[in-house]
Amino acid sequence: MTFPLWYFLIPYAVVLLGTGIFMFFNVYHIAKFGIESFTTTVVLLFYVLMYLGVLVFSAALIGAYNWSATIALSDVLPFVGTNVHLGL
Predict the structure, then answer these.
(1) What is the pLDDT, as a whole number, of residue 72?
(2) For residue 28, what are the CA distances in angstroms to 3, 31, 54?
(3) Of 36, 38, 45, 48, which is the most buried if we count CB atoms within 10 A?
(4) What would the pLDDT profile of 20-39 be if each residue is shown by its tens digit?
(5) How far is 55 from 6, CA to CA, in rounded Å?
(6) Could you tell me which of 22, 28, 23, 11 has the C-alpha nearest to residue 62?
(7) Can you give the pTM of this predicted structure?
(8) Phi then psi for 29, rounded to 5 degrees?
(9) CA 7, CA 40: separation in Å to the nearest integer?
């Protein structure tokens, strides 16, 4: 059984959506209900920049692969389709 490699991007997109929502609510609550000071602004800016840095870094790593290729399920899970007794 083979499937396109881009199927692995679906869980990544779900996690990316979740972290985006989480990041939006964190920034909103820090800005709205946080103590108005220079330190809060610096922490908020650092938080946003680190989030964007992780996004850029992961996009660079993901962009290095050919996602249009197909892969066999036996390459991902080596014991699929074999009669190997694991001794469990």
Answers:
(1) 83
(2) 40, 5, 20
(3) 48
(4) 999 999 999 988 888 888 88
(5) 18
(6) 11
(7) 0.70
(8) -70, -35
(9) 40
If phi over 0 gives left and psi between -120 and 50 gives alpha, with beta otherwise, what is residue 33? alpha
1: tokens are 């059984």
> What's the average pLDDT block by block, 10 residues per block, for the chain (88 residues)?
86 94 92 85 92 94 89 75 57
Sign of CA dihedral 78, 75, 58, 13: negative
Tokens of residue 10, six digits? 């679906």
- The reported pLDDT for the residue numbered 1 is 76
